[in-house]
Amino acid sequence: MARNFGFAPIKGRVIDFDRNDKRVFEYVLEREPSFALCIGCGGCAATCSAANFTEFSLRKLNILIRRGENDEVRKIVDRCMLCGKCTLVCPRGVNTRNVVFLTREAFEEFDNYAI
Amino acid sequence: MHNKEKHIVIIGGGTAGCVAAGRLAREGYRISLIEKDKKPGGKINNWYQLFPDRRRSVEVTDYINKEIDHPLIDLMTGTELDKVKYKNGKFSISTGKSDLGQADAVLIATGFDLFDATRKEEYGYGIYDNVITSLDLENMFHSGDILTTKEEIPKRVGIVHCVGSRDEKVGNFHCSKVCCVTAVKQAIEIKEHIPDSEVFCFYMDMRMFGPYYEELYRESQEKWVVNYIRGKVSEVSENIEGRLVIKAEDTLLGKPIRMEVDMLVLMVGMQNAKAGLNLQDKFGIQTGVNGFFRIRDNHYGNNLSNVDGLFYAGTCTAPMNITDTISHARAAAVEITEYLSKN
Ligand code: SF4
Ligand code: SF4
Ligand code: SF4
After folding, report:
1. Which residue from A8, B141, B203, B268 has the highest number of Cβ atoms inside 10 Å of its Cβ?
2. Which helix (H) or strand (E) is B63 found in, with range?
3. pLDDT > 90: what percent of chain B?
């Protein structure tokens, strides 16, 4: 079945903000208000061991959550080892570790209600 | 006091012109203050609240009006400079209405014009109903109602930074300095008026250069959950429901983003005022690559022009906030006092 006839529908790369589901974002923000303070500097990702060995960046994860790009969030959120190094670095005092934790929790929560 | 025999003409009765006029009058100089509009105060009159503390702008205009309340200041509103003759360091100046006689020094404080947003056609100002400028939004704050043209409360508002600044396509390479913090201030004000609205700022860089600006930026995130997306809006269109559709790249994700908004606010930048540029030939003064008047030295001569006896104050030399404009005007007063004591 893996034949490509050259006209298979390709999922666009565009972030379709109006269609995206922002419930994960809302779930995290409500429980961890410091999440609103991220300025996308990348300090967290620079120090992160997971980011140094895999395609993972907490900075990116933060933004993906905000935009409701949940498929991608789901793909990478498990790569974090919850070591908490990033929290020590963040210049805006985002409780980064908790953001990851709550994101996972949000998926469990919403999956139970079968989105 | 012999200072009284010296006469200074100040062109422009905005913040810079008025502050300098007040200082120089208190030194005992006779001042002719020419303002083209009906009242002094300049651009601040249009603004509702000021960054970073969101005080009402009238508090600052009150201060400015007090500055020029002095018997040695002759304020001429609705007046523009007509002819200038320059000889042996003295200026003979006339307005369309009267001859001002000889001036021992001239201060140009003609300020800035806001960028004409219709020049960035891709943003649809003047084409789509709910594309407005930062100035239009201030007028809404004055009136107390933030409404779309259909008289509806906007649920989502987009803010576009750098409109007419940092943009080779319109010939403006410079950063207008104050529009980032204006965007932050206005985003907060929108959220305050419409708490359940969403606000998205599309920026190229967040330039929070002044005291308490970064704090205001932080407050906008922490208290008001204003959203910031790093990417320049490339185009705006209108869909069938009349909502605006904007396209940008979310550069921190490296992905294009598309979203609908009910209102789009363009952060128009600063340019040297036409009224100032009209003086160029009359005085034989020069502009820099940024279109503002060229100062004699970037570090210690920023009130001096290429003509002896002719000085600058405020945003005719570069984009500035109100605080810096006031400091620049006070510095101009010091330069002029020193010049007149020697000449
Ligand atoms: S907590 Fe997760 S994201 Fe933070 S440094 Fe550790 S592994 Fe990286
Ligand atoms: S270090 Fe903090 S502010 Fe910087 S990207 Fe990470 S979470 Fe955001
Ligand atoms: S202050 Fe900000 S919005 Fe204004 S021109 Fe500079 S970078 Fe752009």
Report:
1. B268
2. helix B57-67
3. 97
